[in-house]
Structure formats: C-alpha cells, structure tokens
C-alpha cells in the first residue's frame, strides 16, 4: 500500500480549517502541500481528489500569507512555525513538503530549520530558481478584477481554466489594505531570499516539478542550475502551478517520489 498523503495549505486558525480527502492509514509518510501568495489552497483540490482516489489520505488547510505578518528580520519564520504546529497536531514526525511558488520558500526554510522533520521536498515555481517572479502587475493599494485576471492568465497556460471563480479567488487576498500591505512584505522578502543557496544546502531528497510553460518563474534558468540537473521533472502544457493545470501528471510525479523516498511513520 502506498504512503498516506497529507495535503496542507497553511492557515492561522489551523485547528478549524482542515478539509479531508480519503481515509487515513495507521502508518504513513505524509505530504504537506503549501500554496503560493496569489494561488491559494484551492490549487490543490484536484490533485488531492486524485490522490485520495489512488488510496492516499489527504488533508487540505488554508494559506496564512494574508494574516501572518512578514517580520523584517525573519519574514518566513511564523509560517514555518505554523507548519510545525500542524505537524504536531496531527502527530506527524517526518513528512514530505510540496511547495508552490512562495510555498516552496516556506518548504525550503522548514527543511533548513527542522531537517529531522522533513523526509523530502517537491518544489514548483519557486521564486529565485526560475528567475525573479514575473506577475505582470505593479504594487499598489487597490487591485481590480482586471488585475486578478492578468495574474490568473500568467499563472495558467490553458486560459479555459481561468474561470470567473478562479479570478475571484485570485482577487480575494487583495480586498483589504491590511492584507495587501502584508503580502507586499512577502514579495519584498523574496527579492533578497537566496533560493539557489538554500537548494544547494539541502540534505533531503528533492524533486523539482515545474510547468514547462511557466511564465512567472520560467524553467529555462532552472535547467542551468547544477543542483537540479538530476531531479527536474518538467510537465508540458502547464504554467506556474502544475498541480492545478495538470493534476494527474503532477500526482503521478508525487507518488513516484514518495514511494521511493518514504520512511516508515506512525500516525
């Protein structure tokens, strides 16, 4: 039987914001999935459903970027603390982390700070690896639906997926000035975060699952990094969030990686 999978996109109110997919097994290695700033927990829904159908237990939590303040001296520390709290609440001693975009940075930081808790990483669209993030919009205090549409179209290659619901979800983090300012702090923090250095120092198995047509963090620069030469899985026909555009192919890559590298764990 394959390892159980925990899919988690973080939220401040962790205990009350869990959505389950599938049935938990008595022993498992869990996979915690972390969302980006502009594509939140909803990007994991299709992949979580498919994983559950394959016999994998999944839990989806919400993201916390709009609520968690990015402190100047340690912008990602509170998010890592939230993640560890989630693991403790579910009695998970060793997990895989899958991070999309900024979620990948949180995964890198968690692996650096708590290597004993991390069995491996699956990273997609991490800023600084595929070059600086190119969202196509400038920072401002008020965002419109047109701005959200532009972001959604940059995230996706298949624009048929850019529905009214997706645009609404992309716009949701920008409805209040307070959350806009907080998200802007994370964007600024990413400009100085050295993702390449963090990857070079990783001690755990890592798979880079990248959209072949990612417009936000293009894969071309990633291919030039020696640290990823033997661990890059490119999924053609999708962009910045392959788990959203190509959930079946993404899920297959996840299952292969987890099956190979999963340690025994008791839940």
From TrEMBL:
SUPFAM superfamilies: alpha/beta-Hydrolases (SSF53474)
Pfam families xrefs: Abhydrolase_6
Transmembrane region(s): none
GO molecular function, a single term: hydrolase activity
Keywords annotated in UniProt: Hydrolase
Domain AB hydrolase-1: 31-250
Domain of life of the organism encoding this protein: Bacteria
Record-linked PANTHER family: ALPHA_BETA-HYDROLASES SUPERFAMILY PROTEIN, HYDROLASE
Protein's name in the database: Alpha/beta hydrolase
Organism field: Ramlibacter ginsenosidimutans
């Amino acid at each position: 039987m394959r390892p159980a999978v925990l899919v988690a996109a973080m939220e401040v109110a962790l205990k009350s914001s869990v959505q389950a997919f599938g049935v938990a097994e008595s022993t498992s290695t869990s996979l915690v999935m972390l969302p980006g700033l502009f594509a939140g927990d909803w990007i994991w829904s299709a992949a979580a459903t498919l994983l559950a159908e394959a016999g994998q237990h999944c839990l989806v939590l919400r993201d916390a970027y709009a609520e968690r303040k990015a402190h100047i001296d340690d912008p990602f520390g509170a998010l890592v603390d939230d993640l560890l709290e989630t693991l403790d609440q579910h009695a998970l001693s060793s997990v895989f982390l899958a991070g999309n975009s900024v979620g990948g940075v949180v995964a890198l930081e968690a692996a650096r700070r708590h290597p004993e808790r991390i069995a491996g990483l699956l990273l997609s669209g991490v800023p600084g690896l595929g070059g600086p993030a190119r969202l196509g919009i400038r920072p401002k205090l008020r965002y419109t639906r047109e701005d959200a549409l532009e972001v959604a179209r940059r995230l996706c290659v298949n624009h048929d997926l850019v529905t009214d619901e997706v645009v609404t979800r992309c716009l949701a983090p920008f409805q209040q000035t307070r959350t806009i300012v907080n998200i802007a702090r994370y964007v600024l923090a990413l400009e100085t975060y050295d993702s390449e250095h963090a990857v070079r120092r990783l001690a755990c198995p890592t798979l880079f699952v990248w959209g072949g047509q990612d417009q936000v963090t293009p894969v071309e620069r990633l291919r030039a990094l020696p640290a990823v030469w033997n661990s890059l899985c490119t999924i053609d026909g999708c962009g910045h969030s392959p788990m959203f555009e190509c959930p079946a192919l993404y899920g297959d890559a996840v299952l292969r990686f987890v099956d190979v590298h999963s340690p025994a764990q008791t839940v």
